[in-house]
Design brief:
Length: 285
């Protein structure tokens, strides 16, 4: 069962993961500036997923100096900038491809909300308007597709309006169906357009599941995303090391529950011992 996308904290850990032939490698922010990383991966003839976060702006782990999604959203208020945005994203994708990246864990299709620190506060959302989010993310998708790089739409069901940063603590979506349906609009659009990858968030949505966050919820991943929204592509968790799941459920149970929920890949950004533990756990399932 090949389900682990693994990050690393040193060149030695990277070499270890390559020897283990993990199905996916995650290039984290702390390794994204190292030319040696990409040389080693290239020379290894690695055939799996090589992914990173490269949204533009704050979350740009490998190639930088591109505008944030919020900056792009402001540019797109003038339709004459559509081609410029496409060209910027295509240049980003080309540079990622030159380094061996074949999967970008972006674009963010969460809606902007000024009180949300992790998305809105860091300029990671295109707009508060679902339609404007779709325009920005569609340009991102087309530009990457032109360079042969897959993209991942995130963070399902929608993290832009949630309360609390899942990197640090439990994050909750305390609203009803009217607002949730607004947050779902970009995901619905891209699923209809044939999206191949979606990343599920660690946000808890009591409206849909009172026990588990999205990433660990069979009711949401299998029942809602696959069953009701008819997404037949690949589901990736957000980093399973985030406090919202690791501290509340424990590492082993978080991995186990996410797989039982129906995800295809568990993203583990760091901790080589835990990655080894997860690989053993997966073989036991």
């Amino acid at each position: 069962m090949d389900v682990i996308i693994a990050g690393f904290e040193s060149i030695d850990e990277l070499r270890f993961l390559l020897r283990k032939e993990v199905p996916g490698l995650f290039i984290p922010s702390w390794m994204g500036d190292s030319p040696e990383v990409f040389r080693i991966i290239r020379e290894s003839d690695y055939r799996g997923l090589v992914c990173t976060d490269n949204e533009g702006g704050y979350a740009s782990w490998v190639v930088k100096e591109y505008p944030s999604p919020s900056g792009v959203g402001r540019m797109l208020e003038d339709y004459r900038n559509y081609r410029r945005v496409y060209d910027l994203y295509r240049d980003m994708a080309r540079r990622l491809g030159e380094k061996g990246i074949n999967l970008n864990l972006a674009p963010v299709v969460d809606l902007h909300h000024p009180e949300n620190y992790v998305i809105g506060g860091k300029g990671r959302a295109y707009s508060a308007s679902p339609e404007q989010v779709i325009v920005g993310a569609e340009l991102f998708r087309r530009a990457h597709e032109a360079e042969g790089i897959d993209v991942v739409f995130k963070h399902f069901v929608g993290q832009g309006r949630s309360v609390g940063d899942p990197h640090e603590r439990k994050s909750i979506y305390p609203f009803g169906w009217e607002l949730l349906n607004e947050d779902l609009k970009p995901f619905s659009y891209f699923i209809a357009m044939g999206a191949r990858y979606i990343m599920v968030s660690h946000v808890s949505i009591p409206l849909m599941d009172e026990e588990f966050p999205v990433s660990l919820s069979k009711r949401i991943v299998t029942g809602f995303l696959r069953g009701e929204m008819h997404f037949f592509g690949t589901v990736i968790t957000d980093d399973i090391r985030m406090s919202a799941v690791e501290e509340e459920f424990g590492f082993r149970d978080a991995v186990r529950l996410s797989l039982r929920a129906g995800v295809d890949y568990v993203l583990i950004s760091r901790g080589i011992n835990l990655i080894e533990e997860a690989m053993k756990l997966v073989r036991e399932l």
